[in-house]
Amino acid sequence: MPFAAITYDIKPGFEKEITEIFTGFRRVGSPVVRDATGAQSARILSTAVFIRDATMVRVIEYEGELADIARHMAVQPGVREVEEKLAPYLSRPRATDTVEGFVATFERSLLTCMAQMSVRDHAPA
């Protein structure tokens, strides 16, 4: 299962406030992601958020098409709520109020995956 990581440029010193934002996060309605035709194209398996100093990283474990994951996240009420609540703590604003803006910001914030390993990738000994 692949992982994606996106960064947020945040103002340092607000770790507690940002943690509180994610404590009340409303999960997506379904982990199943559908493409424009309605067919299942991806699935969100897990997410995690990390923070240190002026950087926050959201890690997403998924199956399928990452572009469809980004479009799916763009319309999720919980994701939109978090983006709105994070705005005062960002050192670089994110234009995520439209689907197009969210997807463009997601792509621009995406880290390059250098290596990825999982015990699930190997047959049992």
From TrEMBL:
Spell out the InterPro entries in the cross-references: SchA_CurD-like (IPR007575)
- Which part of the chain is the SchA/CurD-like domain? 1-119
- Pfam families, per database record: SchA_CurD
Protein's name in the database: SchA/CurD-like domain-containing protein
Q: Which organism is it from?
A: Streptomyces smaragdinus
